Amino acid sequence: MVDMVRRYFSLWRCFFNNSLTRDLEFKANFLGGLIVDIIFYGIQFFFFSIIYSYVNALGDFTREDVMIFLVITFLADTFYMFFFSGNLFHLNKWMVSGDLDYSLLRPVESQFMVSFRYVKSYALVSIVILLIMLITLIIDYSKPIGILNMVTFAISFLMGTVLWYSVDFIISSSCFWFKNFSVSGWLSHEILKFSTRPDSIYTGILRKVLFSIIPMVLIASIPTRILLYGPNYHYLIGQLFMALTFLSLTRIIWKRGLLRYESASS
Amino acid sequence: MNSYLKKYFSVIRMTWIQALEYKANAIVGTFAIFSGLAIEFLIWKQVFQAQDLQEIRGFTFNGLMAYIFLCMIVGQLKSSWATSMEMIDSIRTGEMNKYLIRPISFFTYHFMMFIGHNSTFYIVYTTVLILFPIVLPGWAFPTILHVIGFIAALLISIYLSYSIYFCMVCFAFWFGEVRALVIAYNISNIVLSGQIIPLRLFPDSVRNIINLTPLQFLVDFPVSIATANLPINLWIPKMGMALFWCIIMTVTGRVIYRSGIRVYGGYGA
Predict the structure, then answer these.
(1) In which residue ranges of chain B is pLDDT below 50?
(2) Across the interface, do B180 and A33 touch by the CB < 8 Å criterion?
(3) Radius of gyration of chain A (CA)
(4) Is residue A266 part of a domain?
(5) Which residue from A12, B95, B134, B226 puts its CA 20 to 30 A from A248's CA?
(6) How far is Cα A163 from Cα B263, in angstroms, rounded to an integer?
(7) Residue A108 lies in a domain
(8) A35 located within any domain
(9) Is A39 helix (H, G, I), strand (E, B) or coil?
(10) Closest partner residue to B187 among A28, A39, A206, by Cβ?
(11) How far apart are CA B151 and CA B154, in angstroms?
């Protein structure tokens, strides 16, 4: 087991080195990606600054809470970009063109290959900037935030990332059934939009759905709550359960999907 | 003239047929509008309830929701960023050569393709817009004049938006890869054109800057007409301004294109 983890980790390191070399060849793209990220963050901050000019708090989330929530949302988005977006977004194209064959023929687990092969290395710069922003906001926060909050936040954040990956992977894998589902990326984006707003705005059935069937609030809202208001073991256990369930679902859907795959130009 | 129209109409027809094959676009697009509206509804409901507000800068809660709903539809109808990506690719890879040796305009051909590709959206959203005043009377389109004004402003918005994208696309002649520029513009214009928050709710300083740009005519202008938020006596002067921006952006696009085509290698970047 340990050997297998070590092998896959060293394989990912090779993927990273290769992607970094490729990304650095197109420096304008590298810079462009960073500029797009900065504009995206700026626009989100602007959106909430307008909302908070008319209200003091959205449920539990005050203006300073939402600033931290936004940075955590960006961090989750950037983590996702760094590890997965260069892969899952292209799954439909690989399946339609038959390029998926190359991933299936390698002596590694095919789901690992299609999930991790390309790393968006420029996201590393954004991750560093966002981490600095998060630490600054934590230091400046009106109440002290303890170490326990930070440790449980890190665990909750990782489970959120696993959930994000799983949901996107499930949507992308639907191309096995729809044959050509080129708008899967757009659909994922629209579903993931629910994770970019604080959970306190969701009520009734929608809230229940966003905690269970489509667990979007577990991606950024719950980690933010754990960081700001202290560890809540109900949330953590719930998140762990959902993360494991969705991860298992990705395995089932991937294996079932592969049985339907007809190779080149299917 | 007749052959000119025939030529470009066949481009629309061809892309229309392609678009109808992929109905998923329209389904996901409709989902995008309703999910976006649900989020906006919940946020603004909290704002109105928490402060016990009856209206914000002239918007009642229902009026605001009608406004945002129409904004999302207009925002999607005018957005030609996917076509822009194809145009950037064709310049970068040298595929553009095929347009140069044929009697077609790169600008008009892609404009017609953009209209053809969006045809499924036009069908779905026209149905939604027809149902809108029937299901929710009084929230939008109070008179037939408002419907006509909205259609005219929407057509201007679609053309203006495409012209702005075209100007950015043409920078690909010099820089090869300008996707980041288009994406950055796309992200900012979603908020700055009033697509998710009405321009009237922006701070005055920001609004004054936006009023100096064509962004106000992309979403806010057609929707303000539809929801009767813009007095009728201001329609003509505003349309004049919008048409003026259309001319400015068309001429700018042509100038950039003509300079760009001189440096175009045609062998791919």
Answers:
(1) 269
(2) yes
(3) 19
(4) no
(5) A12
(6) 48
(7) yes
(8) yes
(9) helix
(10) A39
(11) 5
Question: At residue B60, what is the residue type?
Answer: T
Could you tell me if A250 and A166 are in contact, meaning their C-beta atoms sit under 8 angstroms apart? yes
Nearest CA in chain A to B41: A201
pLDDT at A266: 46
C-alpha B257/C-alpha B91 separation (Å) is: 11
Residues of B in contact with A46 (CB under 8 A): 191
Residue A75 is part of which domain span?
2-260
Amino acid identity at B73: I
C-alpha torsion sign, points B25, B30, B33, B37: negative
Q: Which of B25, B42, B53 sits opposite A201 (nearest CB)?
A: B42
Q: How far is CA A41 from CA A35, B178, B216, in A?
A: 10, 20, 22
Question: pTM for the full model?
Answer: 0.84
Question: Can you give the length of chain A in residues?
Answer: 266
Identify the CA nearest to A201 among candidates B195, B37, B40, B197: B40
Q: Is A191 part of a structural domain of the chain?
A: yes
How many beta-carbon contacts under 8 Å exist across A and B? 94
Q: Which residue has the tokens 């970009």?
A: A81
Cα–Cα dist A216/A237, whole Å: 16
State the DSSP code for A58: E
One digit per residue, the tens of pLDDT, for chain A of length 266 reads 788 889 999 999 999 999 988 887 767 667 777 888 888 888 888 889 988 988 888 888 999 999 999 999 999 999 998 999 889 888 888 888 888 888 888 888 999 999 999 998 888 888 999 999 999 999 999 988 999 999 999 999 999 999 999 999 999 998 888 777 777 888 888 898 899 999 989 988 999 999 989 999 999 999 999 999 999 999 999 999 999 999 999 999 999 999 988 876 54
**pLDDT at residue B268, as a whole number:** 58
CA A196 to chain B, closest CA, distance in angstroms equals 10
The tokens 């490729």 sit on which residue? A22
The whole-angstrom separation of Cα B9 and Cα B12 is 5
Among A29, A32, A55, beta carbon nearest to B50: A55
* Separation in Å, CA A215 to CA A200, A240, A246, A254, B50: 14, 12, 9, 20, 26
User: Would you state the structure tokens that stand for residue A93, as one six-digit string?
Assistant: 């194209």
Please, are residues A223 and A230 in contact by the beta-carbon 8 Å criterion?
Answer: no
The CA distance from B128 to the nearest CA of chain A, in Å, is 20
